[in-house]
Design goal:
heterodimer; A: 205 residues; alpha+beta; Peroxisomal Thiolase, Chain A, domain 1; eight-stranded mixed beta sheet; 8 strands; globular; B: 83 residues; mainly alpha; Non-ribosomal Peptide Synthetase Peptidyl Carrier Protein, Chain A; 4 helices
Amino acid sequence: MSNTSAHITASCIIRGNTVVKNGVRVYEAPPDVTLPEFLRGLYDRYSGQYPKFHKMDLLSKLGWAAAEILLQEVPMEHYAPEDTGVILANTSSSLDTDERYAETMKEIASPALFVYTLPNIVIGEISIRHTFKGENAFFVADAFDIPFITGYVQQLLNEGTLQAAVCGWVEQYHSGYDAALYLVEKKPRNGSLPFTANEAEKLYR
Amino acid sequence: MADLKVQIIQQLNLQEVKPEDIENDQPLFKEGLGLDSIDALELIVLLQQHHNVRIANPEDGPEIFYSVRTMAEYITAEKSKQG
């Protein structure tokens, strides 16, 4: 599948109120902290000064925060915006927000909720933040199919469509969530891992 | 206008803005609070939900939503029409 080598140059796994960056646990909140509170904590710790965050739905907040942590201390400015893309997947699509929006339709439908009733909006939020203008796709599947995602991204890199990609899994429905983002680049950085399904799987598990 | 500022903050989820941060005549869009087109729709919802006021002519939107003061004046005018 991979004729051209690529590298996982950063990773960020968020689940169970814990953040693991590049294989190291870097943030943890008590189990009784709710998802909105947890995500606000990530925003305060790793970002701030981005008021749009507060308007996002939980799926976008989760993916946005994961990308924020993933890309900290990883210079991306040398890439043309068109050479950087985002490929994500999940299983619940935007159902959580779809339900919230449907609830508002009983009175006055919320425009602010409506704009988040698609799962790929999280890609847009990440792309706006980091000025990514390259290929993007959002897949909805039963489970995180790591061989599929790594194969898809590898193909984009091989074809020269992208030079770098943020890819992975951003799942959220009600209080349940699970995020795994990888930065994949053609050129290695210190501590890079080979971009293979096996390595991505090891980081995810 | 103080109540209206609180309503705007809540409706638009401006969690990092306090009522006192919004000046009465400060533009709400672009260089002011930096609101966008979705926020404009939410302000229309705010008028309906909190004040039972509708905007008859959408072209009047930019003038009505220019600032907190123009919004308040519009609400007052429409309320007086309603008696």
